Amino acid sequence: MPTRDEIFDSVRETLVDALGLDDDEVVPEATLMGDLGAESIDFLDIAFRLEKAFDIKIPRGELFPENIASSDSGFVKDGVFTEAGIAELREKMPHADVESFTADPKVEKMQDLFTVEMLVNFLEARLP
Fold first, then answer.
1. What residues does the Carrier domain cover (predicted)?
2. Tens-place pLDDT, residues 10-48
3. CA 71 → CA 68, 76, 89, distances in Å?
4. SS3 content of the chain, % helix, strand, coil (to 5)
5. Which domains does the chain show, CATH number per domain?
6. CA–CA separation, 22 vs 80, rounded Å?
7. Which phi-psi region, left, alpha or beta, contains residue 64 (left: φ > 0; alpha: ψ -120 to 50)?
8. pLDDT of residue 105 exceeding 80
9. What is the pLDDT of residues 69-92, one digit of tens each?
């Protein structure tokens, strides 16, 4: 099993290649969209590259959950995650810092959950 530092190094290399970044831009607290400029379409490429780098299969929606924030999901009211929505995020994204997000759980801020550290946490939990 790779160490956390080795996982981080591979994640950094993956993000540098996928998003055309410099190594020093990829730090654990960097958000994929806000800080690193990823777009939603990049998430598929990132997941694919991580699958190849770590020789694992990442089922669609497991790394980047889908449809949680839709208005008809029952998890959002008036642009804010409900308690049920927060519980769903905790369940679907145990690798993300949902606790910090609960301070201001606006749908528009959900992208802040997608950090470099979240990727490392996800992989660390998945790898044998």
1. 5-80
2. 999 999 999 999 999 999 999 999 999 999 899 999 999
3. 9, 6, 15
4. 50, 5, 45
5. 4-126 (1.10.1200.10)
6. 34
7. beta
8. yes
9. 887 778 999 999 999 999 999 999
Helices (H) and strands (E) in the chain, counts: 5, 2
How many angstroms separate the CA atoms of 69 and 86, rounded?
10
Helix pair angle (4-19, 116-126), 10° resolution: 130
Dist CA 46 CA 41 (whole Å): 9
Task: Give just the sign of the alpha carbon dihedral 103, 106, 110, 116.
Answer: negative
Start-to-end Cα distance in the chain = 6
